[in-house]
Amino acid sequence: MGGKRPYLLEGERSFLLGRLAEKPDLTLHALLSELRERGVAVSCDTLWRFLRREGVSFKKNALRQ
């Protein structure tokens, strides 16, 4: 009982951060569909919490408009 569960997306960390560096205007849903193509099925909330832990935010700014 108890213990710390490993993060589901830790194995995809380099892919996700690399994709966002390559194309910073990707949406959460676009990232989810790319993950599904790679065989990783997670919820939008799981992806959001992973990105928040990594310090990535989806704010409105000049780059995203």
Number of strands: 0
Structural class: mainly alpha
What is the CA-atom radius of gyration, in angstroms?
A: 13 Å
Count of helix runs:
3
Q: Span between N and C termini?
A: 47 Å
- Strand-residue fraction? under 5%
Task: Name the overall outline.
Answer: globular
Main β-sheet description:
none
Mean of all residue-level pLDDT scores: 84
The low-pLDDT segments are none
User: Helices and strands, in N-to-C order?
Assistant: HHH
Share in helix: 40-55%
Short note summarizing the structure:
The chain is an all-alpha fold and 65 residues long. The chain is built from three helices and no strands.
3D architecture notes:
This protein is mainly alpha-helical and 65 residues long. It has a domain at 13-55. 46% of the residues lie in helices and 0% in strands. The protein contains three helices and no strands. The mean pLDDT is 84.
How would the blueprint of this fold be written?
Elements: H1 13-22, H2 28-37, H3 44-53
Sum up the structure in keywords.
globular, 46% helix, 65 residues, mainly alpha
